[in-house]
Amino acid sequence: MVIVLRTAVLTPFGDLGATLTAIANRTGSGVRDPETGLVTARLTAKPAAMRHARLVGPMPALALDVARSVASDLPRGSRTGVFVATGGLRAHWDELAPAMAEQVQDGALAWARGLSRMHPLWMLRYLSNAAHAIIAAELGALGDGATFAGAASAASALVAAQAAFDAETIDHAIVVALDDVTADEVAIELASRNSRIVAGAGVAALVLARDPAAEARLHVVAVDGVDPEHAEPSAAAIAAVRNRLPKSSSAAPAREVSFAMHTGWLGAASLLADAIVAGELMLRGWPAHLDLGAPLAVTVTAAASPGQIGVLRVEAGARGARLDADLERAASARAT
User: What is the CATH number of the domain that holds 330?
Assistant: First the structure.
């Protein structure tokens, strides 16, 4: 089980505080496009580093902003690593469409017909490790790390971070998940699969520590796996991955949670964002409308084509348990 030092999320509601408030108030996200009829929950935040946004796109630039908000004070050098989960490769239509709209089938005068409108380094926007590269460079996190792709990839990023801790190659890890599934062609596919789910976008980040003496607000453990028989993982395969979770320190069974009905489905960012939101709600106060009674531990599951399965479990640490008790006492004092 890994020690979580700090957390951050960016959802269509805003930062972690705004997201927790929206969920507590039963606020729903999503706006209907009058032209397409699609309901999507887009990010309103703008990257602080526009130079990065121009080169690698807004999502990696926003991932840098979120990572910096929780990890800027970590030691620079080879003992801090970066582990990133991202969605699949998707077209950046805001740049491609103007360049391709006037093209002809034989490719004649392709430059004059629109390719000249593209940035010379446009292919950087398609590099899956763009977020990893700029986070590591800007924060000086030069230790072991990796980038994973797919809807369940946040679990793989956490598993890899745990392996690096076990090998004692790093002392701190920055784990970041990011994705945007609001593009029309993606949102249409999602709506056809489940009309209740709103396509969204988000970034989530954790700072993890190896030092067993460090006090944690939260602990997180992850397992990942694949279903080789089915593109959409079967219930049996998902159960088999869940069964590999180490035994919980809580006597009560972990509750399975998802906040996609509030925030929208955030693609590769959903798994980590849900885990962070659930952990913070356990510490700050579990909204009654989500279920009866606050859980002591939660699990979050992602299973998607091609056969990817990821499961996270979050529990309150010693410092988190004390914080939880302090919040309860403060609430009781206000009530009286």
Answer: 3.40.47.10
CA nearest to 203, candidates 5, 6, 9:
9
Asked whether residue 3 carries a pLDDT value surpassing 80, the answer given is: yes
Query: Using one digit for the tens of pLDDT, what is the confidence trace for 227-237?
Result: 999 999 999 99
Question: Which amino acid type is present at position 301?
Answer: T
Q: Which domain range does residue 151 map to?
A: 2-89+128-335
- pLDDT at residue 307, as a whole number: 93
Alpha-carbon gap, residue 110 to 133, rounded angstroms: 32
How many distinct structural domains can be found in the chain? 1
The 10 Å Cβ neighbour count of residue 74 is 21
Cα 43 to Cα 273: distance, rounded to the nearest angstrom: 14
In a domain, 104, yes or no: no
Residue 331 clears pLDDT 70, i.e. is over it: no
Q: Which residue has the tokens 């089980």?
A: 1
Instruction: With beta carbons less than 8 A apart as the criterion, state whether 85 and 176 touch.
Output: yes
Structure tokens at 68: 């910096």
Helix (H) or strand (E) holding 300: strand 297-304
